[in-house]
Amino acid sequence: MHAEMIFILLVTLVVAQVVLVEWKKRHYKSYSLVTLVGLWIIPLIISVRNEWLRFIFTWIIFTTITGIVMRKAIVKPISGTTPRLVYKWFYFIYKLSYALGIVGYIIMMMTFFGLNFVFNQAPHVWMDCGLMFVFYGLYYGVLGRDISEICADKMAAHIGYYTPQGMPTRNLEKNVCAVCGNQLLVGESEEGVLENTYKLSCEHVFHEFCIRGWCIVGKKQTCPYCKEKVDLQKIFCNPWEKPHVLYGQLLDWIRWLVAWQPFILLIVHGINWLLGLE
């Protein structure tokens, strides 16, 4: 009986993986939307069922603030200060997720080296704490990046200098940032008081914070106006700010683990129940 259950689990996992890969390849937008909804809702359902109050509390705070930010990003006409507000929030989430992950990793390494005994703490206490930090960092990091990608597309399209396909509806004027639509106060060769101005290889110029938000937070690697490939090596000197391929694969794995694995296991339990396997 156990052999049949393991066989059903393996077959279901393989079939589900093939279906998800084909779905993502053929209908990326619907796949991303359903995955985002699952990523956002399923952990809350599990937490409510198990009464994990800490996660419920942080989820409510994140959802409330993100909902307000998303509303500002989607509404038309868009305010001139909205893009910077949106990027600041998601850039904060991006930095916070990195910090939580690093703190969790350090705590786990300290546990492996036995430093917990110096503070008279059991190993499982520190390990649980480290894993909790890593989970919160990865979860809100993935969720924030996926939501910010939607907001980045909506904002840039509403401003008019960017469209996902085809030509923009507005011509980019000189000394205007195509991400936020505001004037550039300093030249690319001048040192700014609050932020600098960046020029891409395509000769288009942007606010430093806007282009960083576009590439890091919005996960875009092309010029917001002409869609030419962006040379990230010139923009991001800090290795933590470079969108690595391995990091993207890690985020895909987290999405699958949080959004789709519970649903797949539910299907497996349903099949076992129908076949009378326990």
Automatic annotation (TrEMBL):
Main location: membrane
A GO term from the CC aspect: endoplasmic reticulum membrane
Database matches in SUPFAM superfamilies: RING/U-box
PROSITE patterns reported in the protein's UniProt record: ZF_RING_2
Record Pfam families: zf-RING_2 (PF13639)
One GO MF term attached to the UniProt entry: ligase activity
Membrane topology: Multi-pass membrane protein
Keyword tags: Ligase, Membrane, Metal-binding, Transmembrane, Transmembrane helix, Zinc, Zinc-finger
CDD domains given in the database record: RING-H2_RNF121-like
Source species, domain of life: Eukaryota
GO biological process: ERAD pathway
Compartments (UniProt record): Membrane
Residue ranges of domain RING-type in the record: 177-227
Membrane-crossing segments per the record: 6-23, 30-46, 52-70, 91-119, 125-143, 256-275
Keyword Transmembrane on entry: yes
Protein name in UniProt: Putative ring-containing e3 ubiquitin ligase
Organism: Nyssomyia neivai
